[in-house]
Amino acid sequence: MNLKDRARKLKTDIPTIFYSLKDKDTPLTAKIAAGITIGYALSPIDLVPDFIPVLGYLDDLILLPAFIALTIKLIPKDIWEKNKKQVQNSNDFETAKKWYYALPIILIWILIILLLIKIIWR
Length: 122
Prior knowledge:
- The structure is a single chain.
- With 122 residues, this protein is mainly alpha-helical.
- Helices cover 73% and strands 0% of the residues.
- The termini are far apart.
- The mean pLDDT is 82.
């Protein structure tokens, strides 16, 4: 599988994981893994910052696919296939403009900025 195919697969895997997270039939351990995976995929905060040469991007190239693979293994096949079909039949992820999904990340950044300002002014 070349890089373009993997990127295309990620484009469907992440929404499928999101739908599986919301699915009531998904087991709790799979939901926890899905929440971590979606949070990591959407968060601008990485475990290894991107400005660190090589390691910053290797972090994204290794950790995110590992989280996705683990989550997919924890989700039962029938639930995975059902949610994958739902993603393929839906345009929600292409047309959605739900700004409130970004709210937790925005609040974290505001908190970090306020803490930095407080530290600098002391």
